[in-house]
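JOB MANIFEST
job_type = single_chain_structure
chain_count = 1
residues = 114
[input]
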Amino acid sequence: MPEYKTKEQKRKFYDSKAWKLLREDIKKRDNYECQECKRQGRVTIDTNEYSESAKRKKIMLVVDHIKELEDYPELALDPDNLETKCVNCHNKKHGRYVDYSKWRKKPKWDDEWW
């Protein structure tokens, strides 16, 4: 059973043909919609926007391992352990979400700010 503990091991897996084909199947199965947003009553779909800086299509949706790859390597290619998520929901799940609204400066004249 392969391990997916190091960055190199994970990169090799995510670059594999098997992953790339399955990832597309999962997005199709999930109707190209974020499943977490759907559970919250929202709709987030894939777009065809192009990123000039990256010179590729903007990534709006990713396929996420419900049970983490490094903890459950045997489920790496199990469709029942995969779901489509938007980048925002995926980042929230992994603690990479930043609530930018809290960065706003308090206006000088507003004494009742949060």
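[summary]
The chain has a mean pLDDT of 87.
The chain has four helices and four strands.
exit_status = 0
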